[in-house]
Amino acid sequence: MKFSRFTNIVSFLTLFLTFLPSCSKHTNDVIPDVRVDFTIDLENPEFASLTVAGSFDTIDAATHNWGPLAGGYDGNGIIVYSGPDEFHAYDRTCPYDFAANGKSVRINADYAVAVCPECGTTYDLSAFGTPASGPGRYPLKNYNITLTYNRYLRVWN
After folding, report:
1. 6-40 pLDDT, tens per residue?
2. Helix (H, G, I), strand (E, B) or coil at 121
3. Which residues contact 48 (CB under 8 A, 6 or more apart)?
4. CB burial class (10 A; 0-12, 13-18, 19+) of residue 11?
5. Domains located in the chain, CATH noted
6. Which DSSP letter does residue 117 get?
7. pTM across the whole model
8. What would the pLDDT profile of 99-123 be if each residue is shown by its tens digit?
């Protein structure tokens, strides 16, 4: 009797540990990681638009001479989007073109969407960069954002 109870416990633990990794947060990042780390001062007039919900700004290595830490993958840049409750930061490299063809295509932002000029995929910036139309199936690569003192917006990974 004790042996079967022990066997049941071992079987349960084995099953639990087998499926545990599948419960972890899964990201669909197809864009390779590059180091990103810069801070935006929201009181700087250049970034005043980010204080309005639904607005965005594009950042690249030339912005304030931040260099490659603001360049995103392959220097394509980063989109910083001001949502109604939080900020989001996305790499400007199209995940569809990268996954399908190995191409590094820079997407263009317009209002609350980003559009790839090559494949035509439209990404919804207000919905975590998910594809809204077109052949794309992966969301834009997301970067971490921290807001301190309601003024300094740090984008990093």
Report:
1. 555 544 444 444 444 444 334 568 999 999 999 99
2. coil
3. 42
4. exposed
5. 34-156 (2.102.10.10)
6. T
7. 0.82
8. 999 999 999 999 889 999 999 999 9
